[in-house]
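User: I'm preparing a small set of examples for a lab meeting where we compare how different chains pack in three dimensions. I only have the primary sequence for this one, and I'd like the structure in C-alpha cell form so I can line it up with the others. Please keep the answer compact; I'll paste it straight into my notes.
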Amino acid sequence: MIYILEDDENIRKLIVYTLQSQGYQCTGFERPSDFWASLNNSIPNLLLLDIMLPEEDGISILRKIRRTPLFKTIPVIMLTAKDTEFDVVTGLDAGADDYVTKPFGMMALVSRIKAVLRRYERTEETSEILEAGDLKVDITKHTVFVKDQQVFLTVKEFDLLSLLLQNRGKVMTREHLLDSVWKIDADIESRTVDVHIKTLRQKLENAGELIETIRGVGYKVN
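Assistant: Understood. Below is the C-alpha cell output for the 222-residue chain.
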C-alpha cells in the first residue's frame, strides 16, 4: 500500500491512477489530519509526501514520522515544487529517502518508487552489525553506540556512517558519498558531505577520530 499526501486534487488523482495502473494499491489524502487517522490504523509500504500542505507542512510531518518508533521505517519520497539546494538538503536531512520536484513525469516517479522500495527490501533481508574501535552500528535496528553510550544521528548521518563502515579501509570520494547517501538527481555541492562529516565527528566524540579525511578526495574509516 502506498499513501499519497497531496492537497492538489489533480496531481493526487493522476498519481493514484498511474500507480493503480502499475499494480500498486494506493490511497490519496488531501489533509494531514485524514492521513494521520489512517496511519494509526494501517501502515503503508511507502509515503509520497507534499511539502506545502494545509494544517501542517510536509517537513513537520516527516520529522514526526521519523521520531515515532512505529512509523520511522516507512520509506518517504517528498513531492514538491521547492527545488533549491537548501530545500533539498532540508528534506533529506529530515529523513526523506528521495526528493522529486514538480513538475515530474509519472513513469519517472514510478521508477523512483521502485528504487526506494528495492533499497528497503534489501535492508529488511539482512541484519548487519558494523564495528570499528569503540563504535558499533546496528543497521537493522538503526542504532549507534560508542562504548555503551547510544548516539542519536539524523537519517543521513546514519546512512553516511554506515556506508563508510561497510567500506572500512577504502577511500570513499565525496561524489560517491553524495550519490550513494543522498540518491537524488540534483547538483549538491560536496560541501554537504563535509558538513555532515564534521557533525558526525562531534557526535561520536573520540570515536569520530576513526573517520579520516583524505585531502582532495574524500573520507575513509580505519
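A couple of notes for your slides: The radius of gyration is 18 Å. DSSP finds eight helices and twelve strands in the chain.

User: Perfect, thanks.
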